[in-house]
Structure prediction request, 568 residues.
Amino acid sequence: MKINVKDVAKLANLPLSPLEEEKFEKQLSDILSYVEKLNEVDTADVKETSQVTGLKNISRDDSTSSSLSQDETLANTKNKPNGLFKVKAVFEE
Amino acid sequence: MKLNELTIAQALEGLKKKQFSSVELTKACIAQIKKHNREINAFITVCEEGALEQAKKTDNLASKGDAFRGKIPLLGIPIALKDLFSTKGIKTTAGSKVLENYMPPYDATVVEKLKAAGAVIIGKTNLDAWGHGSSGENSDFGPTKNPWNKAYVPGGSSSGSAAAVATDMCLGATGTDTGGSIRTPASFCNVVGLKPTYGRVSRYGIIAMASSLDSIGHLTKTVEDAALLLNVTAGNDSHDATTPIKEVTDYTKKIKDGIKGIKIGLPKEYNVKAKIDSSDIKIFQDLGAEIIDISLPHTEYAVACYYIIQPAEVSSNLARYDGIRYGSERQNFGEEAKRRIMLGTYTLSAGYYDAYYKKAMQVRTLIREDFIKAYKKVDVILAPVSPTAPWQLGTKADDPLKMYLSDIYTVTANLAGIPSLAVPCGFSKEGLPIGMQILGPQFSEETLFKIGYFYQETTGWHKQKPVMRVKKENG
Prediction:
């Protein structure tokens, strides 16, 4: 198999069931085998295209404008002690 | 004719002449939704109360006189929005359980523009969750059914928008097209679908799928209506740095100018002559267009290129859903979203980036150059939208690669960033709609509308409507 599903799921922070792990291993390996078709193309001196607009260094005036209120920003979260988002601890005590 | 069956252009005329009000028009659409949505599953949310309130407001504005109308080009027109478009105070799910209860605190730029233009937001349409799919079956809220035959898929991912327009539940609907998600459902449901040039319409506030490919467009009953909507949605937005400061012309102005002297290319790799009726090609020739055989040599690599770049960008865009600020936990992603997150994470991971992602970005350059070279010889390219007619629900659902391969004729426009207009061009032997697309160079929408309009007026395919029957309950 081409892909270590458990490792990739960990990188993606994506909980998978054992059934999904098994299914994805096969399906993703098939897809990866297909996309390797690109190896047939000679791209030795070809530049990469990451965007198609041709626009460069788009900036705007460094000025302030209105933004969402604290209440609006917190409206979609259940856990909001003291008007803040609650996240899991990053550092151990 | 019922009011909900009108085109946008017809309804604007009727509203102007005071033949009916926006409230009556909106009520007719809501009645149609109530009658058929249960079997078609085109809408996730119907905004009955809000829409009627908005319609009443537009009727009041309309009473202020015609001078007002010029500034409010869609005054009183009921429009549906794909449920990826953020709507302030209206639930926006992206078709996913992750955002089942998400209530955006702001409107997407396009929604703001439509509202400012007087449009009435009638509801939010069903879709393959996050835009991931070609059939409409990947919605976490159940698949949309093809109104022409409910055993068949309506095409995706803008499945609900296509079915809603085809069944006259609204006058027009918005969509997004990352690899064919407007053009495929438009073709499968016999409506017109526009995928504009990348950057022509702002992506701000529209839930992102693959940011270098996402194009914001719409599905309508006619080509003229597609032009009317683009007049409102197109243009620079300081919230989206990929929208150039480029004038938005009145896209309806030259729509009836004819196609004499236009050069139409048929790419040999797209199998055009097998997929599109020779009489259709003759229609163009008869009115003075020149048909030229061309080649887009890297076509066979397009699906592979697309299914590296797109999942890579998907995995990055969906990384923001952490269940903390909004939405629920990551295990609530549906199967297709999980598959794409996995695929993208893998191809972007250390040691694999060069072999997959970098390679795909290089092949993207070659695909783009194919089009640039072709447009030195021709004005537009004619191509099928889908390699097959609509398929039966469930037949490709367990084989993702097979589903991906159905995007072969649509992903190229997204990789190259060019516009494409899908128009109805007939029916399969099973009686299901087929569409073709007209692809032009970047910012050539005006030309596409001209050709599409002429084809539509000559053939009249778009006028055919699915026969809708209501099953009796308890019967």
The domain at 3-463 of chain B is CATH 3.90.1300.10 (Amidase signature (AS) enzymes). Chain B touches chain A through 58 residues (CB under 8 Å).
